[in-house]
Amino acid sequence: MTDRNEKLDKTGRIIPVMRTMRHFKRLLECPAEVAIVGRETTLVNLPRIAAALRERNKAVWVDLDLVEGIKNDAAGVDFLKKRVGADGLISTRTEAILAGRREGLTSVLKTFVHDEASLVTIRKNVLSACPDIVDLIPGAAVLYALSTLSEVRHIPLHVSGILPPEEAGREALFQAGIRAIHTGDPVLWPKTALSR
Q1: Using CA atoms, how far apart are residues 129 and 131, in angstroms rounded to an integer?
Q2: What separation, in Å, do the N-terminal and C-terminal C-alpha atoms of the chain show?
Q3: Minimal CA–CA distance to 13: which of 192, 195, 196?
Q4: In the predicted model, what is the mean pLDDT of residues 162-168?
Q5: Is residue 188 within 8 Å of 166, Cβ to Cβ?
Q6: How far apart are CA 171 and CA 79, in angstroms?
């Protein structure tokens, strides 16, 4: 296992996602090592948000599909690396994942599990983009799909989106091999985010 992947294993089981600026202060105080930003983030406020998170020793992953004003392409990835100082990116687009890997960013391929055809697409995109992590959405459906995704199980799998509402359901995801849950629900952050 490479040093890069060992670092990925240390992110914690719950990775907080800033879904609204109202939760920004709580995100700063959360003990998780990684924070994901995207919603209510723009080209203008992203560098300031990222700087504040880095001051709290958090790695900053940016959901490139959700930031307003940044194109989801190689130029957008270059901006994330050089102007924002992002540590990672999340995107549905394989070209952004490939650009992120070239820039040395942790690259998370966001994928949707909604039918059999989507599972074929996931396999194809993982093989072509070689992401560091695959984020499967919605988390509540992932347990049903994991057995058919054996070809991509060598890559760390995360989940996000609609999650099982009860703790036992979330724990079942971890027992099935999911490495982390991305959640915008701040109620889950302090209880399960790992401080390292």
Answers
A1: 6
A2: 20
A3: 192
A4: 90
A5: no
A6: 37
Instruction: Specify whether the CB–CB gap between 108 and 89 falls below 8 A.
Output: yes
Tens digits of residue pLDDT in 48-66:
999 999 999 999 999 999 9
Question: Mind spelling out the 3-state secondary structure of the chain?
Answer: CCHHHHHHHCCCCEEEEECCHHHHHHHHHCCCCEEEEECECECCCHHHHHHHHHHCCCEEEEECCCCECCCCCHHHHHHHHHHHCCCEEEECCHHHHHHHHHCCCEEEEEEECCCHHHHHHHHHHHHHHCCCEEEEECHHHHHHHHHHHHHHCCCCEEECCCCCCCHHHHHHHHHCCCCEEEECCCCCHHHHCCCC
pTM of the model: 0.89
131 in Cβ contact with 122 (< 8 Å): no
Give just the sign of the alpha carbon dihedral 173, 169, 97, 17. Answer: negative
Q: Which listed CATH number (3.20.20.70, 3.40.50.150, 2.60.40.1220, 3.40.800.10) goes with 3-192?
A: 3.20.20.70
